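Cross-check.
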Amino acid sequence: MHSREVPDTGVQAAVSLNRGTLVPALRVETSAQAPDAPAATHAWLSRTGQLVARGGRDPYGCWMNWPHLATYRFSLDRQQDIVAHPDPQASPEIVWDTYRRSVLPMAMQARGCEALHASAVSCAQGVVAFCAVSETGKSSVAYGLARRGFAQWADDAVVLSSDGATTSVPLPFEVRLRDSANRLFEGSLPRPLRLTRNHRGDQGHEQPARVHAICVLERQAGTAMPGVERIEPASAFRTLLTHAHEFDPHDAVRRATMLERYLGIAATVPVYRIAFQPGQGSFSNLLDTLVHEVALEPASATATA
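Predicted model, tokenized:
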């Protein structure tokens, strides 16, 4: 069984009402009996090696199962909803949040897009994504830049579409920061929403936008000031793959397409390595460095609903 790390799931939820044709809605079926799934062909693990979910394909399509929570099913037809069959005792908030944060990017990857474990902001030049392993601070960076006038584009999942230029599809999201972020923002954290319907949450964009840059965040103790290094395409390709979501690692045709796309992304989109030391004082320096070194400018106007 193949395994990959995915971020742990928490309690929040949101889905865009203006999702367009690419972003599938969720339909929760509490009375219908989910079809029995065959043995899982792959699994997703947390950073500590704990099982998060299992998945695979069967005659009904693709499926992902979170033990004691829900089984999610989707076809490869972009016009079809994702269907959740929750356990009787499952929390509705977690069922919807798991769909938004984990199932949705996986389903879109299976349907032909690419998906990164990343947060992002929108600037005058386009979308800037921040990749990192869990608990590095990518959500804090995106939220910190949002407080400086950059509209937040994504929290924890960035979906890419390559049709000529690399663009990002706006997914529904809510800002979710860990308790440790209190010290970075002096306690003024966004109040989490607990929606259980197809809502947009904090997403203020409706149309895909060009990807301006991708920043890979790395914590390095002893770093006096944040360092910014542009990664050459070959290394950028390998680095991006470490943060890429992939639904079915056994699908050789889909994997070949994924690799070809990331080669194109690495060759055409600037990818930067950002090394920094965590801490309240250095966090402000990190944001200053990102704005200056990546030449970010707030958009003059942000599309809203």
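The radius of gyration is 19 Å. The first strand starts at residue 2 and ends at 5. Passed to J.P. for a second look.
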